[in-house]
Design goal:
4 helices; two-stranded parallel ribbon; 7-stranded mixed sheet; 9 strands; alpha/beta; 220 residues
């Protein structure tokens, strides 16, 4: 009848440690307010992992490297985030920030007779304003505390009670120009994605920590 020949390939689902992929189970987290929504950075949805800082190029490269397989696999997140870091490091601007809780006053002795301040701005828009900006650095952990659930196991019993950690910090003045979705690297820290840019001085810029593939958080 002139129909084209159709090829059907069967592949297994890609399972990931400490991760629930069932829509029914993920819906439970949304309904009980454990997450902000389907685009929450802790969710394994495309919107969720992109909001956490994953670049689409990294996701495509990861999937192509895995290939199609009929075998059931339990993958670590590390490889995906390691690929993402290599891509991000090439284009991420560097900034400086310090934790607000551990900040200390520096007293310089034997300095110049007449103290002076020289400000070298990165953004002309703020060259007359050298005040530090408030930051909120947010890190995430897994939603469950077990690598792999058994078929008859209730996921509610292994829900991680603490999956979000916030740290107040102070950043350099030119970070005022960050836009939502910008990926930056804080010196001596990790890569971060700007989730909430500066709206008003009374509210901090919210930065989400991007995993680097070195398993920095362990579910407890």
């Amino acid at each position: 009848m002139g129909f084209r020949k159709v090829h059907i390939y069967e592949i297994s689902r890609l399972n990931v440690v400490y991760t629930l992929l069932s829509k029914r189970k993920l819906l439970w987290f949304v309904q009980y307010g454990k997450v902000e929504g389907w685009d929450d950075p802790r969710f394994p949805t495309v919107q969720g992992i992109v909001r956490r800082g994953l670049k689409i190029e990294a996701l495509i490269q990861f999937i192509l490297e895995q290939g199609a397989s009929k075998n059931l696999n339990l993958m670590e997140w590390d490889k995906l985030w390691a690929i993402n870091k290599k891509i991000s490091d090439l284009v991420s601007p560097r900034h400086t920030a310090i934790g607000e809780e551990r900040r200390v006053l520096l007293i310089l002795i034997d300095g110049p007779k007449d103290p002076f301040v020289r400000v070298i701005p990165k953004q002309k828009k703020y060259e007359d304003n050298n005040e530090l900006v408030r930051l909120m650095l947010v890190d995430f952990d897994y939603l469950i505390t077990k690598k792999k659930l058994e078929e008859d196991e209730d996921f509610v019993d292994v829900v991680n009670p603490s999956t979000r950690t916030e740290t107040s910090a102070l950043g350099e003045c030119d970070m005022r120009n960050l836009k939502r979705g910008d990926v930056i690297q804080l010196e001596r820290r990790w890569n971060y994605r700007c989730d909430t840019p500066l709206v008003r001085l009374s509210k901090p810029i919210v930065l989400f920590a991007i995993p680097d593939g070195k398993q920095q958080t362990v579910a407890k």
